[in-house]
């Protein structure tokens, strides 16, 4: 049988196939001792890059070959190898053909004279020529490979008409010879996992020396179809996407995330809370979409069907390409290119159902709440007359409860949200030169609170044009997003309502204005026509040009322009409960009822970059060099207006306001940032065994002090492919064993310009000689430096039989951290931004996947991964002493009930500080505290605080399976976290510091101390008098009694799909039809009982999706 030996390229390469040509090695060095001819040919193939075509029967049994050649021509080596055999060879372009000598022998006879010659060209989906594509005549062993321009020519024997096209990394196609004039191969999704997309160039994973995770569109789709972050949360544990315990499943809240730990102190607010202002958070990774920077909001609103792959760059070798912005990691998103050689239309539609998850709530029902009040003494008084009134009140409530009054307030603002999503993709043209793809999408996300929605309408046009050695591509994206927040208000207001209060007027059946006496009914606000809406429109145009100047040299250029306009409206009419207070009782204050907040913002980004790539093969050596530069400008501005005096809900427009809000005026913020950078990278590979990468980027930004505009980022990394060593090549068990190591320095600039530069404000209330004066709003620091992160990483990638293992250990130190430093008040300021402190993150990441079964009709895979991180402050300046003292004073305040953030050397940044507690004294009902000297006391002193826990989990991970059989697919994913702690605010605020006049946690019934000798977890209530002589219930301050271990296991994802047989659906002119069902956030088991989603509840979701291509 004929065998076509395919040369596998192991050296680093560019993504575009136009550069993927083979540099053949014409001189090689070899040494053989008693080798078989098959082994000799294999070695020649590996060293030269030639394709070798031969009959396996002809070479079988030929052995005992021994010779050595140093830097010899290929023909000389072949002559020596075939000496004494009845075989001969010929070299045609990049293919060596071994055949029997004329006149017989055991080799195959030459092919019969062909009847016809078929010629054509093979490209990828973007129109770039593919080099080295194997083209075989179906049913025979005759074949050729495509040339440097993708062209081929093959002689077809009589009776044969089909050709098979196959290439590494692409899906094979079998086509009639009449349809092979232009063949476009589609990239194989499985092969996407074997490359690393950096956003600047693409590298083969085998020769890549950095730490990166590639996630394909198929992997994303097997987890969720809601949004990118929902999928990433369940796939990659090193990217910690945190649950928002306040906002829960609110579709209009962006998730907070961090990659490999916290690296930055939280920044202070600008003082202007602009709605719709999604500025980057200090620990958030950098997002790259199709080679251009983008925002987390844009990523969340993306249509997931457009995504081809996501690559997470973790260590310095991977992220140093982005220099001063890469310290927090980089997430690179690539969208799909044109996917075929014909006109296609694809529709994807889904229905998504969200159901409230209230399992974390443990509130009293009506009878339990009444009993809790009785136990707490609400209906007991020393005054006889008062006691009579209280008894009447209790009996009346008891009668109502026994009569069936038990309002479940939690359900009132909630619904089962039903949303829908539609995507239409049209691929136009079948030209070698000009091709286009147009996408339209509509996504309506319905939240579980009534009236809560997020609606995204977007369109994208992708045009590609190729002319000889030039390629031009342009992607235009336009999107509009509308975010409607629920008019039903804060979910926490409903959780406070007593269940024996009625939500409707028993006389009229209408929603009551008051639930009880002066207690406002939160449901009533939803009937008033309130408005809380944010909208933004963005237009992005990304242009890419490529010139293949020579076989080794390619020039690329990018130009990106992004414009965004955002608006936000927040309106509350006069009858809203926020105005139902004693402050609005006077006549003048009555006229101020009703408020309107109007925000407007706009931003623009423009960036351009140009790079030159050079790739060269010689002998066993491969060199790749990339050099270029980037220039960019970002401008942002936002304005805010407050008005008041709206008599009714029909005047929901700011122009109907009676006046500007008292003590308010129009305010705003603005910034402009410019940057320039130069990049150089070099990669060297020897024999696909030893790989070295070097990266250097020099950047300048207007964001930092005049004395330190420039900053350098660099990385150096190595990798050793042990599986390509001669002693491991001839075995099938160990398919991959790569060891890698890297070190490098990157930077972070996720800061607002106004935080670090000299910013002036005008004196608007006074003039001098007709001139308006200005003053510094913050003390500038011209010596301010860039935050920098030094990363060290070692790792291994191993594939043994059916098991794939990836392991990484990292140690990173962030220095020059930006923070507020106390300065003498005589300067006119109390703080200034400065570079202080160092933070270290150390961790381990491990992944394992195992294929239990793999066949032609399906597969069954098991997978699991875990990430561990330890964060500590290793060097903190004494200048933060003032900040810590401020926090200590806050912790000592009798009205404070939550832990404060304190920074101290050797401690984690997210440490939970609390005073040690031995529990409740059974005799007195008071809490017993432990002083620093070990003595016991009843007196709380914040100076005795210790680190009682860490709010971030020490480890996170996932496990599950993915299976497919005859078109049916099933996958399930569970996530887990542990090793961290949480301060149980539910026990503090709804059990111990409870306001008994509102609903409480059930644990208040049996946990509070009542009588001497009682063992209880919760202390008796106390009170104190403030400086104004007003009596208050004393709050339980931060104590170790409420610090609990936080371990969670979540059944996060379940998906089931069926891919219809193409033969069946072809009868209705469909090329593809897929039906999928998803469930997300199914159930959570936790070691701590705490309320989650206190402002907006969490939710479980289900989705049914249909995809059809015709």
Largest sheet descriptor: 22 strands, antiparallel, barrel
Shape: elongated
CATH superfamily of the domain at 2-187: Carboxypeptidase-like, regulatory domain
Give me the oligomer status.
single chain
Mean pLDDT: 85
Written account of the structure:
The protein is mainly beta and 1110 residues long. Among the domains are: 2-187, Carboxypeptidase-like, regulatory domain (Immunoglobulin-like); 191-342, Ferric Hydroxamate Uptake Protein, Chain A, domain 1 (Beta Complex), CATH 2.170.130; 366-405. The protein is built from 19 helices and 58 strands. It has a 22-stranded antiparallel beta barrel. Strand 54 and strand 55 (1031-1033) form a beta hairpin. The longest helix has 19 residues, at 384-402. The chain is elongated. The chain starts with a strand and ends with a strand. Mean pLDDT is 85; it is low at 1-23 and 103-114. Its main location: membrane. It is found in: Cell outer membrane. This is SusC/RagA family TonB-linked outer membrane protein. Residues 50-101 form the Secretin/TonB short N-terminal domain.
Q: What is shown here, in short?
A:
This protein has 1110 residues and is mainly beta.
Task: Note the topology.
Blueprint lengths: L1 E4 L21 E9 L1 H12 L2 E5 H4 L5 E9 H9 L4 E6 L2 E6 L15 E9 L9 E4 L5 E3 L5 E6 L5 E5 L6 E4 L5 E4 L3 H4 L2 E3 L4 E3 L7 E5 H7 L4 H8 L3 E3 L15 E3 L26 E4 L2 E3 L1 H5 L6 E7 L2 H4 L10 E6 L8 E14 L8 H10 L8 H19 L14 E12 L5 E13 L6 E15 L2 E15 L6 H6 L17 E3 L2 E2 L1 H4 L5 E18 L4 E20 L14 H4 L4 E24 L2 E24 L14 E2 L6 E20 L3 E12 L8 E12 L4 H4 L4 E15 L4 H4 L3 E3 L11 E3 L10 E14 L2 E13 L2 E5 L8 E5 L2 E18 L2 E18 L5 H12 L18 E4 L2 E4 L6 E4 L5 E2 L8 E5 L4 E11 L2 E16 L1 H8 L11 H4 L15 E3 L5 E3 L9 E17 L2 H4 L6 E15 L11 E12 L1
Parallel strand pairs: 3-6, 7-13, 19-22
Antiparallel strand pairs: 1-3, 2-4, 5-6, 7-10, 8-9, 8-11, 11-12, 14-15, 16-21, 17-18, 19-20, 21-22, 23-24, 23-58, 24-25, 25-26, 26-27, 27-30, 28-29, 30-31, 31-32, 32-33, 33-34, 33-35, 35-36, 36-37, 37-38, 38-41, 39-40, 41-42, 42-45, 43-44, 45-46, 46-52, 47-51, 48-49, 49-50, 52-53, 53-56, 54-55, ...
